[in-house]
Amino acid sequence: MNVLVIGGAGYIGSHVAKELLGRGHSVTVYDNLSSGLRENLIPGAAFVHGDIHDGPALARAMAGASGGGFGALVHLAAAKAAGESMLSPEKYSRSNIAGSIGVISAAAEAGIENFVFSSSAAVYGEPEYLPVDERHPTNPENYYGFTKLETERILAWHERLRGMRHACLRYFNAAGYDAGGAVRGLELSPANLLPVVMEVACGIRPELQIFGSDYDTPDGTCIRDYVHVSDLAAAHAAALDYICRSGKSVTANLGSGSGASVAEVAAAARRISGRPIPARIAPRRPGDPARLTASSELARELLGWEPRSSGLETLVETSWKAYRALAR
After folding, report:
1. Within this chain, do residues 94 and 126 fall inside the same structural domain, yes or no?
2. Which of 18, 103, 236, 297 yields a CA-CA distance of 20 to 30 A from 74?
3. Where does the pLDDT of residue 67 fall: very low under 50, low under 70, confident under 90, or very high at 90 and above?
4. In angstroms, rounded to a whole number, what is the distance separating the alpha carbons of residues 316 and 140?
5. 57: exposed, middle or buried (C-beta count within 10 Å: 0-12, 13-18, 19+)?
6. Is 30 a catalytic site residue?
7. How many angstroms separate the CA atoms of 314 and 206, rounded?
8. In the chain, helix, strand, coil percent, each to 5?
9. Which residue, 210, 234, 254, sits at the end of a domain?
């Protein structure tokens, strides 16, 4: 199948492009390189430099260079920092809502019938029970999560009105890097825990801030569900197969089903990197639950997906392999 990957030069998008190519699909990456990197463009994928807010450029890209068009689209282009979304909601409205509407509308105009969307566990908000499954109420506590949930709702309407099948994949905490080293470009100004820990290990940041050490967890620090980015990529390919084969849409969690605390991640990074990684306890951040873990049983049942590389050791080892050249 010809697949257009919007945001395919980004951290997750580049791993998705690699996975799709490995499964025999033809891949075209569409990216404005605002956060994606040329060095993460996977050999074998075509590349179109363009912005999701440029309607004519999107339309040309979706027609395909050969005029043959695309059988499917994977949409990963978004602003993604939950904290920033609370300070700059206008940016997130433009990027994540208006931008996604543009992508969905252009896909409908181009007759693309299969749409895989990069959503987030942020749609759930404060967990009412654990592990969180897809039946859990959706009540986002940050504007980022709201933008993802709104895009899911827009896709549901496009299924009703245009027959566009979709897979909404609700990630928990993406981490790690391609074990084979195909993706080498590192995230710019990361906000997620593991890349921040890696930057401290390399001496790029002076210390790790641990936001709260008095939570109701074994070591007092927050527990999160981390899923390897290569496992996420495999889930995108499996979701595409599912919606094409079954003719049905799906919304599914992607997590490991277990959790690791901030302190455990830092300890594993110290052990694997051999670096000190100084840490300082900082005040709690508003809205941070003590624990957040996923049930991914639906993805296992419908997509045949298993998080094979999402153990803490593998997450840290593949991250350190990507970062260690920067160590000072």
Report:
1. yes
2. 297
3. low
4. 29
5. middle
6. no
7. 25
8. 40, 20, 40
9. 254
Task: Write out pLDDT tens, residues 169-214.
Answer: 999 999 999 999 999 899 888 889 999 999 999 999 999 999 999 9
Rounded to an integer, what distance in angstroms lies between the CA atom of residue 259 and that of residue 265? 10
- The pLDDT of residue 92 is 97
- Enter the tokens of residue 249: 């849409």
Measured CA to CA, the distance from residue 291 to residue 129 in angstroms comes to 10
CATH number of the domain bearing residue 272: 3.90.25.10
Range of the domain at 45: 2-176+226-254
Burial of 51 from C-beta contacts in 10 A (0-12 / 13-18 / 19+)? middle
* Residue in 144, 171, 177, 215 annotated catalytic: 144
CB contact burial 133-153 (16+ within 10 A = b; e otherwise): ebebebebbbbbbbbbbbbbe
pTM of the full structure: 0.96
Q: Residue 26: in which H helix or E strand, if any?
A: strand 26-31
Q: Are residues 159 and 272 both part of a single domain?
A: no
